[in-house]
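Figure S7 source data.
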Amino acid sequence: MALFERDQHIYRDRDALREDYQPEELVGRDEELQTFQAALQPVINGEQPNNIFIYGKTGVGKTAATRYLLSHLKQDAAQYDDLDLSVVFLNCDGLTSSYQIATHLVNELRSETNQISTTGYPLASVYEMLWNELDDRTGTVLIVLDEIDHVQDDSILYQLPRARANGNLERAKVGLIGISNDFSFRDDLSPKVKSSLCEQEIHFPAYNATNLRAILQQRSQVAFHEGVLSSEVIPLCAAYGAKDAGDARQSIDLLMKAGDLAREEGADLVVEDHVKNGRRSLERGRIKEGIMGLTEHGHLVLYALLTLDLEGETPIRSRDVRPRYTRFAEMANRDPLVPRRMRDHLSELAMLGIISVTERNEGRRGGTYREYALDMDVNLILSAMDETVELVGVHESLSEYIDPSDSAESAPSDSFSFSDSISSSDSLSPDA
Ligand code: ADP
Ligand code: MG
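Tokens for the predicted magnesium ion complex:
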């Protein structure tokens, strides 16, 4: 019997739900697409292109819309013999400086055999190479810098739009399309960059549930076999998506997770429970990732709050978390942070949705203060914090969550306690 057999009953084409899939048509972005298309019209006319700035949160279709319009633009430009259009698409994730962008652009424009090293040249000579490559194209060159908010300095955003005005280009007509997921990026640009880059600005708003339903509907027709999604699945994915961030990527991921769960179970239909469980599982993944990305002090603060929560002490004020945090920091051999910095960690945890925060009034005196509580499953938090728990020791409030026999040669389970482990040894390991 074959060990591997192809499953075919849920998905028609699961890859259509992946990040790299480009939908043939976009749904529900008519207004933005129309503005965007109008901004690109000069290209077809053979005129100097506009510089365009696209912004909006992640997952609202900025990249998809750009790819969609540019592929049509290239196709439609081909019918004009006097039009020579090149498009360079660069995602700036992982590129932090104008220097890096410029070297990558040079390489995009050059042939495989003629690439330059991405380090070692003076910036001015990289720009020189860039102007040469661009001018060799003679026609129109559209440069798309996606996720442009990763770039720390704005030199390239100034140089590219003005290359012609500054006499660096003679033949090529260059247009820059910048795409940003970050709202503050635009505001932080220097005025001279803003005025050239943001000639045409297009904002992509978050999607609502109706938009997301249409997007999921369209995508599911490619991805799933007919009739395998029960009727509540798409509305539910869309409702969650709208509630979370209006992010189409997140909703598509949820639909895929639901499909995967159904497939793993060998179910014939994807149903509401698959969506709910899928959401929980994705959420857990995100939270776990969030916790793992925290600093050591973030972990110590969270560990302190976790144990206080298990002891029924929450909601709790920052100043009452402090003694436990300080003790944990000392047990881990770290200098405790000052109260203010410790509170910053609480705020960060709240922002990540790991803990909850409630604003309270002081009474007639009128001041306000904040109270914190845990908002997450204990096991989930623990699963992302083994190092901290190991460093500090297993607190007694965790005895039912952490089986001491899991950690090698530990004390017998019922007599095991946190305070014992401190008093019995200099070492901070509970196992000592
Ligand atoms: P952004 O670049 O704004 O972060 P993307 O363009 O990557 O967002 O969109 C996220 C995902 O949602 C992609 O898979 C994309 O194909 C899909 N998507 C977004 N908007 C639409 C839309 N209007 N119609 C169809 N699919 C869409
Ligand atoms: Mg994008």
